[in-house]
Each structure stands twice: as C-alpha cells, then as structure tokens.
Amino acid sequence: MGFAKIDYKNLYYPPGGILLWIVIYLELITFGIALVFMALDAQENPQLFHDSRLLLNRTYGMINTVFLLSSGWCMAQSVQLFKKQEYQKSRKFLLITILGGLLFLGLKSIEYYDKAAVGLRIDYNTFFSYYWMLTLFHVVHVLVGLVILGSLYLGLRDNPYGTKTEDIEAGGAFWHLCDLIWLLLFPVLYLLY
After folding, report:
1. Residue 148 CB partners (closer than 8 Å, separation 6+)
2. End-to-end CA distance of the chain, in Å?
3. How far apart are CA 109 and CA 115, in angstroms?
4. pLDDT by residue (tens digit) across 45-60?
5. pLDDT tens column, 23-32
6. Is the model's pLDDT at 192 over the cut of 90?
7. 65 partner at 20 to 30 Å CA-CA among 170, 174, 183, 187?
8. DSSP string covering 10-68
C-alpha cells in the first residue's frame, strides 16, 4: 500500500513535524506573554478585574471547555484509528471533533453578542480589552483548526489511502493547541481575580 513507516523511537520526530511544533511553541509563548501582562495589570487594579470577571458567564465558559475537551478526545481517537487503518471510524471521530469546534464557536458567538449588547466591548475597560483580544485570537485558532480538520475529513472521505499519517497528526496537534490555549484562558478569565 505504500505507507511510509515512521520511526516513533526517533527522539527528533514530533507528531506533525518539527515546523508545526515551532508554531505551537510560538503561539503558546504569545498567549503566555499576554497572560503575564494581564496578571500585572490585574495587580494594579484588582477590584476592576474582579468586578469585570463577575460579568462573564461562567456557565458558557464551562460548557465551551467541555466542547473543546470532548472534541480533543475525539481527535485523539481519530488519529489512533487512522494509524490502525480504520479509516471510516477515524472519519466519524474527526466529524465529531469538527462538531465540537462548531459548537464552541456557536456558544462563543452567543457570549460575544451578549457582551456587546450591554456595552462590554473591547474599549470598556482593561479587563475586557484582554478578554476580547485573547478570546478572539483563540477563535481565530479554532477557525484555522476547523479548516484544517475539514480538509482532513474530505481527504479521508474521498481518498483515505492518500492521506498521510503526518497530516492527521499535524491536524491533531494543532487542534490540541486550541484545547491547551483554552485551558489557559478559561481559568484566568472566568475563574481568577
């Protein structure tokens, strides 16, 4: 069947390839720096950050966490099933992964609408500047991830034997980046301060 064997014992082979992991580390550093600056600003005005956080909908945040973590689990299942050459099952888990991302975006859109409707926009105060910048940057990552996953899904549907393991792993690694970023943002924005 012409499958290229991957040397998984090779310490230098990260799933998805080294360039993807450079991007992942750069994104994590970028979000980390923003969170550090947010923490420094919160120390200067803790009451503002506390009162502003209380204006967020923690239920939406928790539900979105479940959507992303569940979709991340489904992505991991899709990768494992692909490696076992169970392409139809892999495709089904990939579709559920995409659904989780779409549900996340749908609920986030409702949350954005609710905030904007009552005037809690990016220029409302320092906390909401961080809230909008960080969550919108995350939404961009989710959108890019969904485009990647959609492309992988079409490849698995139309030509599963032409889809490479490295591509599925890269899609999974990028999707898990979206999970990880949300796991950093959710507690900092919704639970702390």
Report:
1. 170, 171, 174, 175
2. 56
3. 10
4. 999 999 999 999 999 9
5. 889 999 999 9
6. no
7. 170
8. -TT--TT-HHHHHHHHHHHHHHHHHHHHHHHHHHH-HHHHHHHHTTS-HHHHHHHHHHH
